[in-house]
Specification:
mainly alpha, about 65% helix
Protein backbone atom coordinates (compact mmCIF):
# COMPACT_ATOMS: atom_id res chain seq x y z
CA UNK A 1 0.00 0.00 0.00
CA UNK A 2 2.93 2.31 0.66
CA UNK A 3 4.20 1.74 -2.89
CA UNK A 4 0.74 2.54 -4.26
CA UNK A 5 0.79 5.84 -2.38
CA UNK A 6 3.89 6.73 -4.39
CA UNK A 7 2.74 5.13 -7.65
CA UNK A 8 -1.10 5.14 -7.60
CA UNK A 9 -1.42 4.25 -11.28
CA UNK A 10 1.00 1.32 -11.17
CA UNK A 11 -0.53 -1.91 -12.43
CA UNK A 12 2.34 -4.05 -11.06
CA UNK A 13 1.87 -2.54 -7.61
CA UNK A 14 -1.84 -3.42 -7.65
CA UNK A 15 -0.92 -6.90 -8.84
CA UNK A 16 1.54 -7.22 -5.95
CA UNK A 17 -1.14 -6.04 -3.54
CA UNK A 18 -3.51 -8.64 -4.96
CA UNK A 19 -0.91 -11.37 -4.44
CA UNK A 20 -0.42 -10.22 -0.85
CA UNK A 21 -4.16 -10.41 -0.25
CA UNK A 22 -4.24 -13.93 -1.70
CA UNK A 23 -1.36 -14.90 0.60
CA UNK A 24 -3.56 -13.74 3.49
CA UNK A 25 -6.53 -15.67 2.01
CA UNK A 26 -8.42 -12.41 1.40
CA UNK A 27 -9.65 -13.49 -2.02
CA UNK A 28 -12.25 -10.76 -2.55
CA UNK A 29 -9.71 -8.03 -1.80
CA UNK A 30 -7.17 -9.77 -3.99
CA UNK A 31 -9.59 -9.92 -6.88
CA UNK A 32 -10.37 -6.20 -6.54
CA UNK A 33 -6.64 -5.39 -6.62
CA UNK A 34 -6.11 -7.68 -9.63
CA UNK A 35 -9.03 -6.04 -11.44
CA UNK A 36 -7.53 -2.60 -10.81
CA UNK A 37 -4.13 -3.83 -12.06
CA UNK A 38 -5.74 -5.26 -15.18
CA UNK A 39 -7.76 -2.11 -15.79
CA UNK A 40 -4.58 -0.03 -15.63
CA UNK A 41 -2.59 -2.39 -17.87
CA UNK A 42 -3.98 -5.58 -19.43
CA UNK A 43 -0.40 -6.82 -19.92
CA UNK A 44 0.29 -6.72 -16.18
CA UNK A 45 -0.06 -10.49 -15.81
CA UNK A 46 2.53 -11.23 -18.47
CA UNK A 47 5.42 -13.09 -16.92
CA UNK A 48 7.88 -10.42 -18.06
CA UNK A 49 6.77 -7.59 -15.77
CA UNK A 50 9.86 -6.27 -13.99
CA UNK A 51 8.04 -4.58 -11.09
CA UNK A 52 6.01 -7.55 -9.98
CA UNK A 53 7.03 -9.42 -6.88
CA UNK A 54 6.49 -13.14 -7.13
CA UNK A 55 4.77 -14.05 -3.89
CA UNK A 56 5.71 -17.58 -2.81
CA UNK A 57 2.23 -18.95 -2.22
CA UNK A 58 1.23 -22.49 -1.32
CA UNK A 59 -0.25 -24.35 -4.30
CA UNK A 60 -3.83 -24.04 -3.04
CA UNK A 61 -3.58 -20.25 -2.78
CA UNK A 62 -1.79 -20.00 -6.13
CA UNK A 63 -4.64 -22.04 -7.61
CA UNK A 64 -7.21 -19.55 -6.25
CA UNK A 65 -5.14 -16.65 -7.56
CA UNK A 66 -4.77 -18.16 -11.03
CA UNK A 67 -8.49 -18.95 -11.13
CA UNK A 68 -9.26 -15.31 -10.34
CA UNK A 69 -6.92 -14.10 -13.08
CA UNK A 70 -8.57 -16.55 -15.51
CA UNK A 71 -11.90 -14.91 -14.67
CA UNK A 72 -10.49 -11.44 -15.40
CA UNK A 73 -9.23 -12.52 -18.80
CA UNK A 74 -12.52 -14.27 -19.61
CA UNK A 75 -14.50 -11.17 -18.70
CA UNK A 76 -12.36 -9.09 -21.04
CA UNK A 77 -12.75 -11.53 -23.94
CA UNK A 78 -9.19 -12.86 -23.84
CA UNK A 79 -10.14 -16.52 -24.06
CA UNK A 80 -6.65 -17.88 -24.73
CA UNK A 81 -5.22 -16.14 -21.66
CA UNK A 82 -8.22 -17.20 -19.57
CA UNK A 83 -7.67 -20.81 -20.58
CA UNK A 84 -3.96 -20.59 -19.80
CA UNK A 85 -4.65 -19.33 -16.28
CA UNK A 86 -7.44 -21.83 -15.79
CA UNK A 87 -5.00 -24.59 -16.76
CA UNK A 88 -2.51 -23.21 -14.24
CA UNK A 89 -5.19 -23.17 -11.54
CA UNK A 90 -6.14 -26.77 -12.29
CA UNK A 91 -2.49 -27.83 -12.30
CA UNK A 92 -2.08 -26.23 -8.88
CA UNK A 93 -5.00 -28.23 -7.53
CA UNK A 94 -8.07 -26.07 -8.14
CA UNK A 95 -10.69 -28.78 -8.19
CA UNK A 96 -14.06 -27.09 -7.77
CA UNK A 97 -15.58 -28.15 -11.10
CA UNK A 98 -19.02 -26.93 -9.98
CA UNK A 99 -17.56 -23.45 -9.56
CA UNK A 100 -15.88 -23.60 -12.97
CA UNK A 101 -19.05 -24.75 -14.70
CA UNK A 102 -21.31 -22.34 -12.78
CA UNK A 103 -19.18 -19.21 -12.98
CA UNK A 104 -20.88 -16.79 -15.37
CA UNK A 105 -17.63 -14.94 -16.03
CA UNK A 106 -16.32 -18.14 -17.65
CA UNK A 107 -19.38 -18.72 -19.88
CA UNK A 108 -17.64 -17.66 -23.10
CA UNK A 109 -14.62 -19.79 -22.26
CA UNK A 110 -16.77 -22.85 -21.55
CA UNK A 111 -18.24 -22.53 -25.05
CA UNK A 112 -14.87 -23.26 -26.70
CA UNK A 113 -13.52 -26.62 -27.83
CA UNK A 114 -10.29 -25.78 -25.98
CA UNK A 115 -12.20 -25.66 -22.69
CA UNK A 116 -13.73 -29.07 -23.34
CA UNK A 117 -10.29 -30.42 -24.16
CA UNK A 118 -8.84 -28.93 -20.97
CA UNK A 119 -11.57 -30.48 -18.85
CA UNK A 120 -11.07 -33.84 -20.55
CA UNK A 121 -7.32 -33.65 -19.91
CA UNK A 122 -7.87 -32.84 -16.25
CA UNK A 123 -10.63 -35.38 -15.64
CA UNK A 124 -10.96 -37.88 -18.49
CA UNK A 125 -14.22 -39.78 -18.64
Amino acid sequence: RAALALMPKSAPMYSNLGSAYFADEKYADGLVAFQKAYDLDPAVFNDSSMLQVSEPLPASLRAQQDYSIARLFAQSGKTDRALAYLRRALNEGFGDRRKIFGDQSLASVRATPEFAQLMDEEHPH
